[in-house]
Design brief:
The protein has about 130 residues and is mainly α. Helix content is about 70%, strand content about 0%.
């Protein structure tokens, strides 16, 4: 619109990155569920590791890295989102979007979903380890 009609919309431009941010925040748990996340494959991809050893690595990573980090982000981002809601925070740009708290609320929501998915994956791996000989 800017180049063709010499007109632009701040609200549409902000909506673009708001939606992108929300998709990223809510998509992280979906990606973890489908094992599409990036991991450091230095040890994990080694053909010398058995499925049992990989399960232990996944459980360790979830319990000692993912869950504490997600908990820390949720704990510190709730006041951030709450303050935006209480103060009816809006975009600082003229013509920008209202209700910025919706965007900020996606941070604790997304990390809560990520932590729940990490916990779920750990429980599934524990169950597989318990039933495997």
């Amino acid at each position: 619109m800017r180049y063709l009609f010499r007109s632009g919309s701040v609200a549409l431009q902000e909506l673009e990155w708001h939606l992108f941010a929300i998709i990223i925040m809510l998509g992280a748990s979906f990606t973890l569920k489908h094992d599409g996340h990036v991991r450091v494959d230095l040890l994990y991809a080694s053909s010398r590791l058995s499925d049992r050893q990989r399960a232990y690595i996944d459980i360790f990573g979830s319990l000692f890295f993912l869950l504490p980090f997600a908990g820390l982000i949720v704990w510190t981002s709730i006041p951030f989102a709450y303050d935006a809601f209480v103060h009816s925070e809006i975009s600082p740009d003229p013509g920008g979007l209202q209700n910025r708290w919706l965007l900020k609320a996606s941070i604790p929501l997304g990390f809560t979903l990520l932590a729940l998915q990490g916990l779920s994956a750990s429980i599934v791996r524990f169950a597989r380890l318990a039933e495997a000989p």
